[in-house]
From TrEMBL:
Organism, scientific name: Ostreococcus mediterraneus
Record bears the keyword Nucleus: yes
InterPro entries: CBFA_NFYB_domain, Histone-fold, Ncb2
Xref: PANTHER family: PROTEIN DR1
Designated name of the protein: Transcription factor CBF/NF-Y/archaeal histone domain-containing protein
Lineage per the UniProt record: Eukaryota, Viridiplantae, Chlorophyta, Mamiellophyceae, Mamiellales
Length: 166
């Protein structure tokens, strides 16, 4: 996001948060079939029209954010959740977006759950701290040997930590 100061209608200053113009321009190109590669085949959009679309996107995001914030504040919550965004869309007359937003929310929840489970599995590999340190030192020694020109010993040292994993 980018910030810029602008003068409000009453003469005061306001911090306007804008969306990244380059990213939105790329999305517009892809939507028009241009793919952003400049190889034709798609439609083109005049720069002033592109700027107007980007401004509309920014205003839409600001309106949904403000409504979501208002709804969460009324409920005594300080965090805007996906549910408040969906309620805001409904309140602003954008019910047609509700299904797609719910699908995106559910996909995001699934991805986050998968990431947490994967991280937990990596963290819990069943070694004590001492065994993990010994394994790390053994791997560093082998890598150092390979870097110094020798291939290093590919078999674990007798009784080494790697031997107990295989």
């Amino acid at each position: 996001r980018r910030r810029r100061r602008r003068t409000t209608m009453d003469g005061g200053l306001d911090d306007e948060v804008g969306l990244p113009k380059a990213t939105l321009s790329k999305m517009i190109n892809e939507a028009l079939g241009g793919g952003g590669d400049g190889l034709g085949g798609g439609l083109r959009m005049a720069n002033d029209c592109r700027d107007a679309v980007i401004e509309c996107c920014t205003e839409f995001i600001n309106a949904v954010s403000a409504e979501s914030n208002e709804l969460s504040t009324k409920d005594g919550k300080s965090t805007i959740t996906a549910e408040y965004v969906i309620r805001a869309l409904r309140a602003l007359g954008f019910e047609s977006y509700e299904t797609e937003c719910a699908i995106a929310r559910d996909e995001h929840k699934e991805e986050e759950t998968h990431k947490r489970e994967t991280k937990k599995k990596k963290k819990n590999i069943g070694l004590s701290a001492e065994e993990a340190i010994a394994m790390q030192q053994e791997l560093f020694a082998k890598a150092k040997a390979r870097m110094e020109g020798g291939e290093g010993d590919t078999a674990p040292a007798p009784g080494g930590v790697l031997g107990s994993l295989g």
